[in-house]
Amino acid sequence: MVTTINTPTDGFPPGVSLANAPSPIRGESPELRLALASLQAQAQTLNELIRTTVDALASPQAAPVPGTRAFAEIAQRTVPRWHFAMLNDTARNEALATAVRRAIPPGATVLDIGSGTGLLAMAAVRAGAAHVYTCEGNPLLAEIARQIIAEHGMSDSITVLTKFSTAIEVGRDLPRRADVLISEIVDCGLIGEGLLPTVRHAREHLLAPGGVMMPVSARLHGQLVDSPAMVNLNRVHEAHGFDVSLMETVATRGHFPVRMHTWPHRLLSDPFEMVAFDLAHDPLLPGSRRLTVPVTTDGRAHGLLSWFSLKLYDGLDLCNAPDNPESHWMQALLLFDKPASVTAGESLDMELRWTETQLTVV
Ligand SMILES: C[S@@+](CC[C@H](N)C(=O)[O-])C[C@H]1O[C@@H](n2cnc3c(N)ncnc32)[C@H](O)[C@@H]1O
User: Fold this and answer.
1) Which positions are tagged coiled coil (predicted)?
2) Which residue of the set 184, 204, 326, 351 is catalytic?
3) How far is the centre of ligand 1, averaged over its atoms, from the C-alpha of 194 (Å)?
4) What is the tens place of the pLDDT at every residue in 126-139?
C-alpha cells in the first residue's frame, strides 16, 4: 500500500490518499479490511484539515479568523469542549488558586504545565512568583493564554511556551530548573491526560532538586456497580434483531466518563481505595494491582465506578466522587469483559491495570 500527499498543483485535490487501496480490498481478511478502513477514516479527517489549511493559505479572504466558519471548525476540532465546563467549575478554580498561593514561596520561578487559558500561571503571579513559565501543547490554546495574560498586564511575568512539557529544554526554554511545578492535567479517571508520564518527566528534567509540587498526590477509588444502562454506553450486541456486535471493535478501550446519577444502577460494594500515587516519590510507571472487593449486595457486577481525590497542597483536595455532582469531572467507568454474578458476603477478585493514560479492570 502506498500513501501519498498530493499537492494542489498535481491536478488532484490536496490531501492524503491511500493509493492501491480500493475499498473494500477484495480477498483480504475482515480484520485487514477494518484496519484499512480505520486508516481511511483517519485520512479523511486529515484531508479536511489539509483542505481548510490550503484554502486559507491560497486566499487571504479564507483566513480562519475568529468568527468565520473555518475558524469555528478548527476550534471545535482542536480545543476539547470540556474546557468550558472546567473553567466554570468555581470550586475547582478556587481550590487550585488557594493551593497555588500556599505552595509558591515569594520570588520563586514556577513552571505551569498545561496553560489552558493561563489561569494557574496568572494565579501564580498573584501569589508572588518572580516569573512563571507556562507550557501548552495546543498552539491555539497557547495563543489564547498569551492574549489573556497580556490583557491582564502580566506578559512581563509569564512566558507562554507553545509546546508539550516533554519538549522543554532547560537552558533554551527555561533559564534553569523551576523551584515550583504546578499543573492540573487530570481527567475523570485521573491519568487520562497523561498525568503520570508528564510528572515523571518534569520532576526528572524540569524541577529543581527538592522543588515544590502542586498537586502532591492522588488516590483512585472504586465501587462495584450493576448497571446494564452504563454498559450500553460502550457495548452493543443486537439492534432490531440484527447482530451488530462487530461495532464493539470500535468501542472505547479503558475507562470512559459517566455521570453516575444519570443512569439506573445498583452499587454492589462499599467504596474502596484502588491505588494511590505519590507524585514526588512513586515511579509513576504503568502497573497493576490485585484487588479483593467485599460484596455487600447481590447482583451482576458489570465493572467498577471510579473517581479520584487529588491532594493539591496543604490540606486542599479536589474530588469527583458521585456525591459531588457539582464537579465538572464525571466519574470513570471501567467495564469487566464479562459481568460476574455476585452474592453479598463473598469477595470478588480482580486486577486493576493502568497504562500511561488508561485504566482497565480484568
Ligand atoms: C485540564 S486543562 C487545565 C488548564 C489550566 N491549567 C486550568 O487549570 O484551567 C489541561 C491543559 O493542559 C494541556 N496539556 C496536557 N498535558 C500537557 C503537557 N504535557 N504539556 C503541555 N500542555 C499539556 C492540555 O492541552 C490542556 O489545555
Assistant:
1) none
2) 184
3) 10
4) 999 999 999 999 99
